[in-house]
Amino acid sequence: MSRVPFICGNWKMHMTVPEALALVDDVIARVASMDGVEVGVAPPYTALHAVSKRVAGTKVRLAAQNVHFEPKGAYTGEISVPMLADVGCQYAIVGHSERRQYFGETDAACAQKLAALHAGGLRSIYCIGETLEERDAGKALEVVGRQLLAGLEALEPDAVAEQVIAYEPVWAIGTGRTATPDQAQEVHEFLRAQLTQRYGAEVAGRMRIQYGGSMKPQNAKELLSQGDIDGGLIGGAALKAEDFAAICGAAR
Ligand code: PEP
User: From the candidates 96, 105, 134, 188, which is the catalytic residue?
Assistant: First the structure.
């Protein structure tokens, strides 16, 4: 089954509003004529509204970096799915390793977020990945398999098919150390097999599984040419429009 690759930039806690607008304008111009690839950006919350106006009518999709699973209420500092929909988000990143590590985000909380996003008409970019200790202990597949199924647990198969999975080995995020194409493909193939076993070949064949972890123009082509790698979640390289656009170009 052919899947349109999806490249999404995770801007993390970077970019004031003017900086975000300059970056997104540059990205829009560089990817405007690229067919065969879906492109998204995930600015910080403070820039979502302004960036949303800029990406309207372009090929760039808007993603949030996190979300709360309740629609509203006394949750100081949190942002809900209806609020993200209100500013034009189509995606939200869930379960990024930085959120798991620094903010105690669990698989169970991710499952609630995925369900809330689906109910609100948004799609998730659900991040999973093993630590270096887990990989060295031979537990990489066991860990990502568990995270994958736990996060999707509350969704029906049709809803599962619409979600994007991001395999991000924790040891490769922001470290400059990338998984080799073979290492990444091994995990992606395993994840698709898990999805096939649980939800059937049709659902698994439709799902996009991104790779994330120090992807840059120099290594993107080789990673993205692997059979089960359907795009990338890009951190550092997404902050330079030229590098980000080069990765988008490599995905086509
Ligand atoms: C990320 O944080 O999702 C990521 C992949 O970061 P980097 O590309 O900087 O490793």
Answer: 96
Identify the three-state secondary structure at position 225: coil
Ligand 1 atom closest to 236 (CA): 9
Give the residue, by CA position, lying nearest to ligand 1 atom 7: 235
Mean pLDDT of the residues in the chain: 97
* Alpha-carbon span 105 to 160, nearest angstrom: 20
Residue 208 lies in a domain: yes
The per-residue DSSP string of 159-186 comes to: HHHH-EEEE--GGGSSSS-PPPHHHHHH
Q: Considering the domain boundaries, does residue 1 fall inside one?
A: no
For ligand 1, is residue 10 a contact (CB within 6 Å)?
A: yes
* CB of 214 sitting under 6 A from ligand 1: yes
Does residue 168 have an active-site annotation? yes
Asked if residue 65 belongs to a domain, the reply is yes
Query: 3-class DSSP state for residue 221?
Result: helix
pTM of the model: 0.97
Q: What is the CATH number of the domain that holds 242?
A: 3.20.20.70
| Contact predicate 89/62, CB 8 Å | yes
What confidence tens digit (pLDDT) does each residue in 168-201 have?
999 999 898 889 999 999 999 999 999 999 999 9
Does residue 96 carry a catalytic annotation? yes
- Assess whether pLDDT exceeds 70 at residue 138: yes
| Number of domains present in the structure of the chain | 1
Mutate which of 8, 10, 12, 126 for ligand 1? The one with the most ligand atoms within 8 Å of its CB, which is 10
The packing angle between helices 17-31 and 241-251, to 10°, is 40
* Parent domain of 46: 6-251
